[in-house]
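Reading is simple: the token line describes the chain's fold. The lines below illustrate.

. . .
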Amino acid sequence: MENKTLKHKTGIVIIITVITMAAEIIFGFVTKSMALTADGFHMGTHAAALSITYAVCVIIAKNKYSESRLNNLGGFTSALLLGLTGGGIVYESCERLIHPKTIIFNEAIVITIVGLAINLLCIAIMGQEHNHKHHSSHHYDHKHEQAHGNEKIKNDNINYRAAYVHIATDAFTSVLAIIALLTGKYLNMPLFDSLIGILGGIIILKWAISLIKDSFTILVTD
């Protein structure tokens, strides 16, 4: 994606994310939902990661010669933040599992659905170029997998990819939160909220490790 376009899209998504983050954290504490609170805090680190992406775009605009390395460094930093987020969600969910609290389900479900809608909007803003690149890279891998095993990674914009993954994980945790809240409300399984939080955190950690490996590989071989 062109640096100017990435900067513009990222700026819009940051504004949307910060507003949603504040709403989810406030309502998460009020409703005592771990899944909703975790989603809100994850959006906070997501906003920080997107800010890194935005900052890299600004620096690249002034130092075009360092574009590749800056993109990789920005992606690596964002991936580390994603890993910390996943670990934090697992920790907080385990804590809530040990010390459960009463959840106000109706309010939590409504705000989580709103959060998911906003996440999908952010994906729509950022995602078109990513999907096209993924399709092209997938086709490329089938044709050249043996001869060029790391070529896809090297040609990828890790800074953009990390930003996109942060957005995708927001949508993912929102879906998990909705499932947890509905299960807790209608099946009388409030602990499922914490269990879903643990599962979501583990999956986010897995995605983060993949990003860290890819970006680190480029940084040490560039």
Summary: Residues 105-144 form the longest helix (40 residues). The chain has seven helices and no strands. The chain has one domain: 3-221.
